[in-house]
Amino acid sequence: MSEKSIYEESKENITENDTNENIEEKEEDLFDEVFGEDEEKKAAKEKMKKHIEEQKKQKETKKEEQEESEKENEKEKQEENSEELENEKEEEENEDEKNEDGDNEGKNDDENNEEDNDDESDDGDELEEDEDSDVEVEIFEEIKEEEESIKERDVREEDVREKYFEEESEEENEYEEEELNKNEKNKNETEKKNKRKSTSGKLDLKVTMEEEEEEETNTGIENPIERNIIKSVIKNKARKAVKNNETEETIDSNEIKKINEELEELQKQQKQNEENDSASIKPKLDFLTSEKGHAYIGRKKSVLAKYGEEAGLFIGRVKEKDKEGTDVYLDGLNPHVVFVCGARGSGKSYVLGVIAEEMAIKNKNVGIIVVDPIGVFWSMKHPNKEEKELELLAKWDLMPKGLDNVKVFIPVGMKNSVPKSTYDAVFSIQPALLTAEDWCLTFGIDRFSPTGLLMEKGISKVKTGYVTIEGKPIRGKQNTFSLEDLIQCFDTDSELNDKDRGYKSDSIRALASRFDAAKHWGIFDEKGTPLSQLSKAGQMTILDTSFLEDNVSALVIGIFARRILAARKLSTRREAAGKFADTTMEDLIELNVPPTWLFIDEAHTLIPGGNQKTPASNALVEYVKQGRRPGCSLVFATQQPSAIDTKVLSQLDIIMAHKLVFDDDIKSIHKRTPAIIPHQYKKPNFIKTMPVGIALTGDRQETTTRAFIMSIRPRMSQHEGRDAETTEQVQELAEDQVEILAVNITARQLEKDPKISIETLAQTLETLNTTYKKKVSIEKIIKMLEKKGITSDENYLYAKGVKEEEEAEKLREQALEEGGGEGVEENPELINTTKTKKPTEEEIDFEQKVELTAIQSTIGEKEARTLLAKHRLKKTLGLFGEEEILDRLSQKYGLIYKIKYHYFNQKDAYRTGEAYINSISGEFIHDSNGKIVESTGLNIINQLSESEATLFGQLMKKKTLKELANQMNMEEGNTKRIIDELIKKKIVTESTFNNEKYYTLKQSVDLPKTPLHEILPSIGKRPIIEVEGISVVPPKLNETELPSLLEKLWGNTKIKEVTHLFLPLWEGILKKKTGEERTIIIDAINGKKML
């Protein structure tokens, strides 16, 4: 048999065990199974069934009348018997003689009565048989009429049959008539037999009706002419077999095979007809198409007419006969709620990546935030490297491409345990942003339980202020409090801890312990990450939440979704009103976010259905309900569509359903698809057998007529969400490299824990040997560690000096026990044994080997001599004046301060900045197209007071005294005194124009106006090398001056970290004949003079 298609129901063939008689009796059923039940035959059966029911009712009424007449006859018989008994009494005298006569007469009477009853019953049976025969005659007359009409129709279709089948012949037609007559005779004989055998007069006829679902009525061949042709051919084949055998033996297996082969050919032809007939799936597929012939889903006609294909997201191609191969584009201009679902490994996360990378490339005006609960989307930075997908990309006319606007954020608490190369920044949230309900859902506490009410009161008190048990007032911290502040409030607040009106100490301790545990989640910070850092136009933000528990991840996403929606609501209203001048700096940093697309994978953990709730549930429900006008879009994926909150599903306008296995999930898809689903696609087996990368896609827009099958395009960027393969992965590393690796790991561990067990080292070494297929011995590693100053005994390894300290401590304890405390003062040398011990040469060498990082130099010694020679003094005309020679040349390094700081441009929000300052010149140092450049004016600001620095910043252009006073909000007298000071320091000059005095800076100044200028961290992008034993030029700008310097320049800055980077220099000593020397220093990158 040919394979069944997805649109075709399975059909059964005639088995070899069917006899000739079974073929005659079941041939109609066979046709019904293969072709579906004939409509005319179905109507005839229904008519026959109704007629039989009416005749049965009439028969039952007649039977009741007969029973009543029989009862009357019995009464008459009883009366006759009573008269006979009276006659017998009168003849008592002749009893002996008449008894025998009476007995004989009684027997004769009984026989007569029985004969009479038999006659009456025979009359009744004849009546019933007559009535039944009338019913049967009428029924079979109708059957005969139907057969004659079918016969006439077969004659009319004879010409058509001859075109398709050559096996029709006059012989078969004659045989068909004979068989019809034979069937009628057989039916009459069976009727007579039934009349003889029947005692109840019931007609034993069975009419079976098979009910089929509406979806399945369309299977089979649609053309009735073709249907009747096929039926008649199969009938004639079966009759021919019976005629040839002329027995009731089973049909020859060869004939059955021929019939099956013909059925297979007909089914193949039917399948081909269905494939060629594009109108078999209704309604006809149609899209909103662009001028280039691209199909658009989710886009309105007016938007397509106005913007064309701008921000069209190419996601796949149509995978069905209607519109085969048409490119499908998703609208990326308007907000949408897109639902992607499918079983594990069906391609749902892949689709999220396709849409996200299209958004990142096609629409630079929106912010993209991808919630990554399994840590796979960070790889979108890199181009696709899979061989199979590279071939597919070529077929789709695409090129592998990594995204350069991806920024990966991890929780702030994980930055020390994650390789720096796998993330770009950290994110955190302020505890003040969480409501009492958020905390209750996260901790699993009833909102209105005593613990829930205690939490609400504690949060309120920390914001507004409270009084401790000792009576000390604590000022409220509004939106800047930490978890430690909350714990302190629970422990010390007088009202909460009151014995009469407060809460139980057990409840307070339990709640405080929960908040103490929350400190280790790694997501909280007093300041938090500004929203504008996460949702930024043209940037794809990957929030890697794979390090977090589900409830903590839900808490984070709920907070961000709520903040994005609130920010976009206010921004949209301000845009509509045109009120931008009233925007404060605080609002600008938090509320100035672009329209945002939020991508969520494994959404069932964040927005579960039923009675379950997470901290993200309410926030995401509001996000999709109210997000259309503010421009908030949501794309979410799950393995369990039936487990998603229906409030979110009711808002979706585009769905992409991949392969699903469970019926509950399939039904939920059918319910929530916002488009007409053809009945062929509603069959459970259809969606259960869809290949990977194929999606049943539905669109709410009226321009898309129905749901359709789409093939997802291959990813241009790398996808890390593939199944893990448990094959052996050999990692190449030489044995000496494994030894060094083991030593370094152990040394780092000893920095954290000064004492570790030998067993731990053995386990670590075993893991390394297994990974790299080596056999490094533990004895060799211990010897290598001892060379680094690490000591050991039978059980433990000790960091440098730890073992000596432990031994000294033991000696001290022994001295205390033996001398009762007196020996300590008498023998102080015993205690200070380790302190007075001189370090060995190896220890001194180990301490001096400090790892330092420096910018890689580009100027060698030879070129440096040439450059320095240009700065020496030469005789005029070779005769007059003094002359210098380059006496000595050495390489030095200048200290550069690498500063990380927070810039607060509103009350509770900040942005992180990075800058580099040269300690020699006191100026910002940058990299500009490969050249080292510096600012001008920063070293001047360092010499000024705060008021002088503020005025200095206003004098970039010529201004009058009045203008300066207004800008500084100062009296003109005070402003004039500051100006005079700057004039004395030769920083400001005074000029007169039209009898008006103007003030300006004496020398030009070039300083960054904002602490977030993109050039500030540029020097850190140059190649870095490690150096040892360097000679550093003494700095002119001290590290302690940096906080006040940045405060004077920008204000509202707080330095978080200062590290050191070294600039390579060449120092030349120029010497005169008199022995006088002077020093010239140039940088080893551009050759520019530094000193």
UniProtKB/TrEMBL annotation:
GO terms for molecular function: ATP binding. Residues 18-38, 81-103, 111-149, 167-179 have a biased composition (Acidic residues). InterPro entries: AAA+_ATPase, HerA-like, P-loop_NTPase. Residues 249-279 form a coiled coil. The keyword Thylakoid does not apply. Residues 334-660 form the AAA+ ATPase domain. SUPFAM superfamilies: P-loop containing nucleoside triphosphate hydrolases (SSF52540). Gene3D superfamilies: P-loop containing nucleotide triphosphate hydrolases. Residues 1-14, 39-65, 150-166, 180-192 have a biased composition (Basic and acidic residues). Keywords: ATP-binding, Coiled coil, Nucleotide-binding. It comes from the Archaea. Residues 1-221 are annotated as: Disordered. The keyword Acetylation does not apply. This is ATP-binding protein.
